[in-house]
Amino acid sequence: MSLADREDPRSSFQASPTGPWVAPPGSPNTNPSPAPPRAAIGRRRRRPIWSVLFFVILILSVGIRAYRDLSRPEAWVYWKETYFAPTMTSSVVAKIDLDDRGRGRAALAIHGTIGEASASWLRAQLDEAHLAAGDIVLLSSPGGNLGQALIMGEIIRSRGLATAVGTADTSGRVTRSYCASACVLVYAGGSPRYGVDGSALGVHRFVTPSPGRDPVADAQRTTGTVLSYMTKMGISSSVIEAMSATRDIRWLDPAEALQMHLVTDPIGNAQATR
Fold it and tell me: Phi first, then psi: what are they for 272, rounded to 5°?
């Protein structure tokens, strides 16, 4: 080895038989990249204050709106009826024979006051009962919420179900009952609408529960809504005249209900008992 090679520590790497020259281990990097200042890193990671304020304002606006909605008494009633205590009850009857002709149909018998969430409740009960078109919804109710009753009638009509007024035991024996006020709107959704001998249909003038600044206009809108619905269901407008005549319940004569087309299929008293 020459003296120059002995004095130059890199020469052994230059003469390496395994390849080109490489730097000796541990040799410092002569051009290191400068580390970013800490202040610059902090600035990049910090979220802009305007975005935080926007997020806080958005959460507050949603929370305030939700609180206002849920603080209304009717909202609490709706949630209570939906999840804890429905105002109506139901029972499935495997087979009832209203006309005593041996053509028994399955039925869902519903009872009670029509509440703030009764339409959703009815839809769920019908789904569970697996009623087919032509099966029967048997009603026994003093009435209740007008808006919910209209929806319930639409649900019944959309499924091709019949309606009747009465109650039934597990054997399918039908007992007379009554359907008044908003219940009549639910009954109107049936096709056909059976008239059980001895059962009663009662109508009266509907009153807006929360009248606005113009009660007369509110009453006219309600009357128009009910008239449009009854006409759609194939019922004579004379039923509106009967409703408008009094604020008290007016029990319709069976012949009168038939003339109004409120009852489409009257049946005898072969299975209706006191």
Answer: -95, 125
